[in-house]
DNA sequence: CAAATAAAGGACATTTTTGTCCGATTAATG
DNA sequence: CATTAATCGGACAAAAATGTCCTTTATTTG
């Protein structure tokens, strides 16, 4: 469904949000440790998220990554997915056809539209804050 | 969503079914031409489908691929997807966690279960015959 | 201002997916 | 029975995704 990079990106963003709720700024090393991901690869992905203004980065000692409380509401999952995987999930044809639309649909077109609409709705309506608080109260987990 | 191999596999299977409805057996070359896919790669995928008894192959002159009318009803999309992509789509965690289940869910677990259940239902209930007849009456298209 | 710390970014390495080529096998036909 | 046409299957090639390493840049602190 998502690329590995995107999975790491979402997990990282949720962890950063969780720690930001405690006023903690976190380093790549800590993030990679806590979400069980390769450090250097995770660093790349965090750069992407930072460039897309999804998370905030601070260089130098005491630096690291954080997310402002307001941004946790504003940042929805679809923004993270788009920043990392692009919009292939939303746009492309399920069977890989270049020209596939309501006028000239592939055999799966209509059935795919339904599922993708649901997926899209879910991603657009799920905020980082929602995911982070689920973690905070121990309802959900990020590791393993 | 699906791998390229799986996209080609579905398109090929639908085309074979369509032609089998006319009593025609088709070659790899014709299939690749008609579904706009790389010939040799398509051949590999057809082998997989053949080994999984999803399509039937005949060697030698006048040989090719075909699907019996009854099998078009019996073969559902999920069987093709499983034969080519395995069950990652149905089983894995949306965020890539190894241990993710109702007891120890990732932050997206519940929302993913919903979408995947829909996808799974769709794939399990869609037969090759249904897709082939859509093509036959000109409601849907396979190329480009 | 020097040292230390952390992200940024470029180059490179590995693995997986996608795609190609060619000889072996099978079967039909003259 | 030789030729031919088709799939099968293994080895290889190219491209994309995943992952690593190392230098540069920014910033804090003593």
UniProtKB/TrEMBL annotation, chains A, B:
InterPro entries, per database record: Tscrpt_reg_Rrf2, WH-like_DNA-bd_sf, WH_DNA-bd_sf
Taxonomy, superkingdom: Bacteria
Coiled coil (UniProt feature): none
A Pfam family this chain is assigned to: Rrf2
PROSITE patterns: HTH_RRF2_2
NCBIfam families with a match to the protein in the record: rrf2_super
PANTHER family for the chain: HTH-TYPE TRANSCRIPTIONAL REGULATOR YWGB-RELATED (PTHR33221:SF15), WINGED HELIX-TURN-HELIX TRANSCRIPTIONAL REGULATOR, RRF2 FAMILY (PTHR33221)
UniProt-recorded name of the protein: Rrf2 family transcriptional regulator
Taxonomic source organism: Flagellimonas halotolerans
Organism lineage string: Bacteria, Pseudomonadati, Bacteroidota, Flavobacteriia, Flavobacteriales
